[in-house]
Write a structure and sequence with these properties.
The complex is a heterotrimer of chains A (about 290), B (about 325) and C (about 325). Chain A has about 290 residues and is mainly α. Chain A has twelve helices and no strands. In chain C, about 35% of the residues lie in helices and about 25% in strands. Chain C contains eleven helices and twelve strands. Chain C has an eight-stranded mixed beta sheet, with helices on both faces. The chains are: A mainly alpha (about 290), B alpha/beta (about 325), C alpha/beta (about 325).
């Protein structure tokens, strides 16, 4: 009996995976995501040099066999720094999205399920957060809390929470009056059980998609914040701060900004493709 | 015969931007143990709201609900949870009343988990197997998700869920309306068998008079929130007294080309249930209405033995 | 006698990734002027697809009309190009869809929606079109002052009357009504059926009424065709099919509906379910549910004519038909 149950769930997952794999763009995105993951985990093994190792004698060397992406103004290997940078991007991206989703789900659930005053208060608070441009909000929070990866995650996470709150609230409003919710109440379910066992699993799909796309936005925000000096402090490599630092050398040493810039671009592109593909794959209307 | 459920002057009003919607307006009746009360009426008559109010899925605005000699009009928390074990519901839409993300087994098991019944996994599985067998579902179907099953099987799953806590009273809200004719008959037979085997009491809500004639012991006819007629099933079909009941019976298409029908065609549409004016709500469409019907609200009166009518002109 | 509509061997399949849905298989029937045919069957029997096939509205892809002739007034609709078909739709053949709530455009007034149909098929002036539309409204029992009202201002029954008005605006010869009263309350249904009967007599319109309700068929129809799993299993006049149902499915249908006139202690349902149209069984599609099935049912039975115009697709009647032909 139990094995049958697992088989059933596995086959649902398998169906989604197969639909995803039919979408070439999504597969491309998945590959990029996997490469990113690989680089983050095995950075120590793949990177030929230490990201902070300075070699002032080899400053501003162009791409070559010994330095694939060249060296920067302090003689550090750009290739190694880009690889280590993937780790930062992924950590900040995933953590901030998880934080945002957590906050957003709770607030959206309370707001959508209980309605009335609770809904009003929470949604107006979300409106205020949404009215402030995302980056500006992240900047103000980061500036208040100071540098560091933890504060960066907090800043980006809080700023993105309203998006999730809205998604969850909308899903709850549409599910709340469905008969199966009433049925659960009639067999003795309380509000907590209804929200967590019935409503949230049913609005998982849009949340997952938002999270995937959210990682891309978070990476971009991290880069932007680091670019203006908030966020990750040197010498920890982060693509955005690498762009910022390399800005002044763009005319003579184009490789210092180009490669981190390309890394950002390809990552965002790949994640967006994957997010789009995931949304299509999870769409129940396309079940057949 | 003991009355299992007594409803006295029950009212349920909803506040809408346009005014107060009188969904259920001063409804009284009682059901004895083991009986089936058919509640009949068209859209907007309040029959579904009546069922939901009795089960505390929505709170009554006024009136009393007495279950097994206990006043349960206002119950909360643990008391309500205990009460729920005895009163269950079978829903109309087999496509919406099951969680699309839970297998049939998980849905049927859920009430057991919520009440911590059968903590032993093996015993619980055996009980669920027995329930599914009772409603005619195979073990294999237990692992299916709702979208993999047809309407009839989904409805059987809903019935199994309703039976899980071994209730005494079940509100059936149009349980076969969404099903095909041949499947309807299967489900109706199942419900009849369950009622006979377990001594269940049903409040059977439907708009289909032929279904209710087949199953019910008593019938309550509702119109715009009011009870217009109440009698034993056979008595009601032989001697419908209220003009609305007569029109309703004459309007049902019958699959018998030799049946003599005296068609009563009502004029006009239902009046609005929002802030209704005093007087009989059916008067506007009634072919037998008099002047007095428009000003005075009729009262439910016993006109023949155990046959109650609420009408100003036909009594 | 030349019939208004003759359908011969109509076959419509849908080609999906998961398989081929054999929605309609070898369906044949005919309809004379002023006659009403009740096309009866449960969900998935293929009734709506048949109707869409006649109108040329089957979505291709994934659907495809594989075979068959649809003769309307002697002309084969299948061989017409889309331009010619459009002149017929709404004008000579009209269709009423099931759900009145969604078949009206919510942002157009009801008067304009009736006028649109008239405008598409005539060269009359705007005033004349408006006048005709108002006449149609009065005909279906709606006050013409409501010409400028929107669909949401009407109840379900009234909306269905508007839909009927649109369908009859150009005085079509054939009206196809797909479950026109299923979504309506019983007393409203009675009013709408009464209206349809009146209009039918007035304009001598032929009608195909698609329904699952045998009671409605008894009220409105002259002929009946019972569909099961994409095939017509029995057809005949109203009296023939209702008084002497031949096919076990028809008999099963009659004994499984609770009756208002007879007292039955227990219903006799048809066991099982309609087969999945993607994997239809070989031979008779009803055999697995049939109480009278035999090994002969593994072959698809042909249609036998038992009495004049009373046909049944069942091996049980093979000997009767053979005797009759001797």
């Amino acid at each position: 009996m139990k094995m049958q149950k697992t088989n059933r769930k596995a086959s649902q997952f398998g169906r989604i995976l197969s639909r995803l794999c039919q979408n070439k763009a999504a597969v491309f995105g998945m590959v990029i995501l996997l490469v990113l993951l690989f680089c983050s985990i095995f950075a120590g093994v793949i990177a030929p040099y230490d990201y902070a190792a300075q070699d002032l004698a080899s400053r501003f060397q162009g791409p070559s066999l010994s330095h694939f992406f060249g060296t920067d103004n302090l003689g550090r290997d750009i290739f190694s720094r880009v690889i280590y940078g993937a780790r930062i991007s992924l950590i900040v991206g995933l953590s901030s999205v998880c934080l945002a989703a957590f906050l957003g789900i709770i607030l959206g659930a309370l707001s959508g399920y209980y309605g009335n005053v609770c809904d009003n208060i929470i949604m107006r608070a979300m409106d205020i957060l949404l009215a402030i441009p995302n980056l500006l909000l992240a900047i103000s929070i980061a500036a208040t809390l100071g540098n560091g990866i933890g504060n960066l995650i907090l800043a980006i996470g809080i700023g993105s929470a309203p998006g999730y709150a809205r998604i969850v609230r909308a899903s709850i409003l549409s599910l709340k009056d469905q008969e199966f919710i009433e049925a659960t109440r009639s067999v003795g379910g309380n509000d907590f059980q209804i929200i967590f066992h019935h409503i949230l699993p049913n609005c998982l799909a849009p949340i997952i998609v938002q999270m995937t796309l959210g990682v891309a936005t978070a990476i971009l925000s991290t880069a932007s914040l680091s670019f203006i000096g908030l966020g990750i402090a040197p010498p920890t490599p982060e693509w955005g701060s690498m762009l910022s630092a390399g800005r002044q050398f763009i005319r003579d040493a184009w490789y210092v900004v180009t490669f981190p810039g390309l890394a950002i671009m390809i990552t965002i592109f790949g994640l967006n493709m994957f997010g789009d593909g995931l949304r299509d794959a999870l769409d129940p209307k396309l079940k057949n | 015969m003991k009355a299992l459920l007594q409803v006295e002057h029950l009212k349920k009003y909803f506040k809408t931007p346009k005014g107060t919607l009188h969904a259920v307006d001063d409804v009284s009746f009682s059901i004895n143990q083991g009986e089936i009360l058919g509640v009949v009426g068209e859209s907007g008559c309040g029959k579904s709201t009546l069922g939901r109010t009795i089960l505390h899925l929505t709170e009554a605005t006024a009136g009393k609900i007495i279950f097994d000699d206990e006043d349960i009009t206002v119950v909360k928390g643990r008391h309500l949870k205990e009460l729920r074990r005895q009163m269950q519901m079978i829903f109309q839409d087999p496509y919406a009343s099951l969680d699309p993300r839970k297998s049939v087994r998980e849905t049927v098991e859920e009430p057991l988990n919520l009440y911590h019944l059968y903590p032993n996994r093996v015993e619980r599985a055996a009980y669920v197997d027995k329930l599914m067998d009772t409603v005619g579902l195979t073990q294999r179907m237990g692992t299916c998700y709702p979208h993999e099953l047809d309407g009839g099987r989904r409805q059987r799953a809903g019935i199994a869920r309703a039976l899980a806590l071994n209730p005494r009273f079940i509100v059936c809200d149009e349980p076969v309306s969404a099903l095909d004719v041949s499947i309807q008959a299967q489900i109706l037979n199942l419900m009849q068998d369950l009622q006979e085997e377990r001594g269940l009491t049903y409040l059977f809500i439907t708009h289909d008079l032929s279904v209710v004639k087949h199953l019910a012991t008593h019938i309550l006819v509702m119109y715009l929130g009011h009870v217009v007629e109440y009698a034993q099933a056979d008595e009601l079909f032989e001697n419908p007294l209220h003009p609305y009941t007569q029109a309703l019976l004459s309007a049902v298409p019958v699959a018998d080309i030799h049946a003599q029908r005296n068609r009563i065609l009502l004029q006009g549409e239902l009046s609005s249930p929002i802030d209704p004016k005093p007087g009989c709500r059916f008067a506007v469409r009634c072919l037998q209405s008099k002047e007095t019907c428009f000003g005075n609200s009729p009262i439910l009166r016993e006109v023949r033995p155990e046959h109650f009518v609420s009408c100003g002109s036909c009594v | 006698m030349e019939h208004l509509l003759e359908v011969h061997d109509l076959t419509i399949h849908f080609f999906l990734k998961s398989g081929t849905v054999k929605a309609v298989n070898d369906v044949s029937f005919s309809l004379g002027a002023g006659e009403t045919l009740g096309l009866v069957g449960e969900t998935g029997a293929g009734k709506t697809t048949t109707a869409l096939g006649i109108m040329g509205l089957v979505q291709c892809p994934p659907g495809k009309v594989l075979d068959g002739e649809i003769l309307f007034n002697g002309k084969n609709l299948r061989t017409m190009d889309s331009k010619e078909l459009r002149t017929i739709r709404g004008n000579q053949i009209s269709m009423i869809f099931q759900d009145p709530m969604t078949s009206l455009n919510p942002i157009d007034t009801i008067g304009d929606q009736i006028a649109e149909v008239i405008r598409l098929h005539s060269d009359a002036s705007s005033e004349e079109i408006r006048k005709k539309a108002e006449e149609m409204l009065e005909l279906v029992g709606i006050d013409k002052t409501r010409y400028c009202d929107y669909p949401h201002q009407f109840s379900g029954g009234m909306k269905q009357r508007v839909v009927i008005a649109i369908a009859l605006a150009c005085n079509p010869k054939l009206l196809i009504a797909d479950e026109p009263t299923t979504a309506l309350d019983v007393t409203i249904q009675a009013q709408v059926l009464d209206l349809m009967n009146d209009l039918k007599k007035k304009f001598n319109t032929s009608m195909i009424l698609i329904t699952h309700d045998l009671g409605v068929v008894a009220e409105v129809c002259d002929k009946v065709a019972i569909m099961y799993s994409g095939e017509i299993v029995e057809s005949g006049s109203l009296e023939q099919v209702f008084d002497h149902p031949l096919h076990p499915y028809t008999q099963g249908l009659f004994s499984s509906i609770p009756s208002l006139t007879r007292k039955v202690h227990r219903l006799t349902p048809i066991k099982g379910m309609m087969p999945d149209p993607i994997c239809l069984p070989e031979g008779c599609k009803f055999a697995e549910r049939c109480p009278k099935a035999s090994p002969a049912c593994s072959q698809t039975p042909p249609v036998y004519e038992i009495e004049p115009a009373h046909c049944v697709r069942c091996t049980l009647y093979k000997t009767d038909a053979e005797e009759k032909s001797k």
